[in-house]
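Final report, results section. Input specification for complex C-07:
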Amino acid sequence: MFAVEVRDHIMIAHSLPRPVFGPAQGLHGATFVVDAAFFTTDLDDNGLAVDIGLATEILKEVLAPLNYQNLDTLDIFAGRVTTTEFLAKHIFDRLAEAIGNGRLGEGGKRIRKLRVMLHESHAARGWYEAEL
Amino acid sequence: MFAVEVRDHIMIAHSLPRPVFGPAQGLHGATFVVDAAFFTTDLDDNGLAVDIGLATEILKEVLAPLNYQNLDTLDIFAGRVTTTEFLAKHIFDRLAEAIGNGRLGEGGKRIRKLRVMLHESHAARGWYEAEL
Amino acid sequence: MFAVEVRDHIMIAHSLPRPVFGPAQGLHGATFVVDAAFFTTDLDDNGLAVDIGLATEILKEVLAPLNYQNLDTLDIFAGRVTTTEFLAKHIFDRLAEAIGNGRLGEGGKRIRKLRVMLHESHAARGWYEAEL
Amino acid sequence: MFAVEVRDHIMIAHSLPRPVFGPAQGLHGATFVVDAAFFTTDLDDNGLAVDIGLATEILKEVLAPLNYQNLDTLDIFAGRVTTTEFLAKHIFDRLAEAIGNGRLGEGGKRIRKLRVMLHESHAARGWYEAEL
Amino acid sequence: MFAVEVRDHIMIAHSLPRPVFGPAQGLHGATFVVDAAFFTTDLDDNGLAVDIGLATEILKEVLAPLNYQNLDTLDIFAGRVTTTEFLAKHIFDRLAEAIGNGRLGEGGKRIRKLRVMLHESHAARGWYEAEL
Amino acid sequence: MFAVEVRDHIMIAHSLPRPVFGPAQGLHGATFVVDAAFFTTDLDDNGLAVDIGLATEILKEVLAPLNYQNLDTLDIFAGRVTTTEFLAKHIFDRLAEAIGNGRLGEGGKRIRKLRVMLHESHAARGWYEAEL
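Structure output:
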């Protein structure tokens, strides 16, 4: 299995309004450093698992609607608790969608698996990975 | 697959008394920066793979009997060679036990896989991962 | 010059309501990984520049009123723009105060310089350093 | 599954002479920080997944013919596009060969999987992993 | 003293054609992860040491003529040995020039010191710092 | 001011037998990732602040008598408390000595300042720096 992974980041506000979150129930925020890994079983004629330039672009596009936002005010997250692992899945879904829409070109069809990892601090991270 | 990973560290002395270890046969020591990753197939109603606060606590509890110790003097390691990968498995087993004992609450039952990674320097690390 | 540096982090919401901040004018947030470095010209009888245990404790105490907060709602920041470098200075001042109050014990009197560095992402950081 | 991972690096020149690479079509270069992970299902009598000293040595040996080279001039890469993921596979193949030749000793026979990861910057990496 | 530091990177080919460089005398290459730190003695009315957005932009502009190049073929480096520390100084000079030309706006005049650090691998880096 | 910094590491056992160290009074250990920075005011004819190959060699030589040792048993540390900052100074002194003895060649005479930083975990480090 081959993989190419690219990194970007977002800076967001949100609350986690359930008792289990203790002091994080109130409005606070996070920088999420986001790693998106694209897995393929082979390389194309250019020696590529995936076009790393396009991969970087679609990650930025997918993150744009979240970056510098208060997630509590976004319709897409109404009634949801925007934990690190929930957001990893959300970004995963948007990336999978973009790949399905051909945003990675023909090469996107060769992607077998995605992993989206969100680093929330130097001491904690969460991710979601699945086959496409 | 979802995952949440938390980090802590221990500082221990030990010897690796077998010829294969060369200069590490004598008493020396290590800082192990420990990453524990908890994998689940779904999220609970709070949007959690695992309660990250509890996960951090049980990692600290499991590491406590090792931290600031000379592993050569601990009964639990009598006759064992406490390599990085051996210790990864030891910590894995203690975490699995704690989860089995309900230390992660109801949510602990949803954990499908654990991975325990020990970074022994900027240039080497070892880990153990398995399904629960 | 000797130095000891310890790390902690905070997760906060804030807005930066001035045109120069572009998309960061609205409410968003950040994880700040905070490094506090304590500088001395000599070591005490225990071989210490500063008691690293106490240093870790006072950093945590100083960060506590900020952690998991929306900085826009804190009286202490009324009318201020809570940029990374501004917050570095704020934390520096609280640490200097705690040292002045004897929170680092007798050893605290030997501290000549402090540096407080806030990492806001994998690609940007800000800090404040000054002699005491 | 156990794993031990060791790190080294190479500094190479190359061109990526296909239109898809845009500005990277011309001769440029890269530092690749290389992580090689060796996976086994059990530990030997010494508590080892793999002899970390030997693992470090064979990684260095396998990287030596590439280090400080212009990859465009190496016969082994004639007609090939030396992308990060292609090079990960190349290094994987040489490591697998070395293991097959007994360079990791008897213990090498217990290796079930290899992963070779090349970090090309703070924001991008590629890897190849497969069972042996 | 306040500071703001931003990160970018370049991927270049070059040779270091002097006997002291041993195997690095031939054409090879490097990824340089570049940190540029801007130091001021105070903050402006917006709470800024320097506009981090503009700082990121001018670093990118200054790096652009080097990125994806074979430094051996650039007129500006004719007869020079493009070591890590030499390049740190080169980038420092271009940044200082850009600041002098007003590329950081009025705020640029408050910058007292610059530091340009080039990470060439996980184990080595070089930098140049000076007052402006 | 120019600087070149190289990294190595040591794995040691020691005790810190004073009440202030709490649980670290007993025999335990540490990995110290060691960064040695060499500062000069100019570059030589080869574009070098310091020969990075030689710098790496003398750091390894200076660390060798400590690596894989129980520091409590070394005559040179009899009666001393081997804290992180104390060890930083010890390694600084040995490096300064080696430079004085010409181990960095003629170029060594141009070194104005040294800094030796020991990372003891992902969350703490200590260093010593001084002019030569």
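Helices of chain B lie at 52-63, 84-100. Chain B touches chain D through 23 residues (CB under 8 Å). This concludes the modelling results for the funded period.
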